[in-house]
Design brief:
The chain is an all-alpha fold. It contains 4 helices and no strands.
Length: 67
């Protein structure tokens, strides 16, 4: 079997592997911050259901981000 495309250097493979490991480490470190994005599905549902801003806990400044 003769592959038509081969890397001339292994450097791109090593760089991509290191970058992926760094991203994996950062995702493990910031896992709690990423979990706050799950609220966006709830906010979207609340906006679509009420046809108005989804203001919880009297955080009226959230209306600017929802605008």
């Amino acid at each position: 079997m003769n592959p038509t495309y081969q890397y001339k250097s292994k450097l791109p493979m090593w760089i991509s592997g290191v970058v992926m490991l760094m991203l994996l480490g950062l995702s493990a470190y910031f896992w709690l911050e990423r979990s706050t994005y799950m609220d966006m599905a709830f906010h979207t549902y609340a906006i679509l259901q009420s046809k108005w801003f989804a203001i919880q806990n009297q955080r009226f400044g959230a209306g600017f981000t929802q605008l």
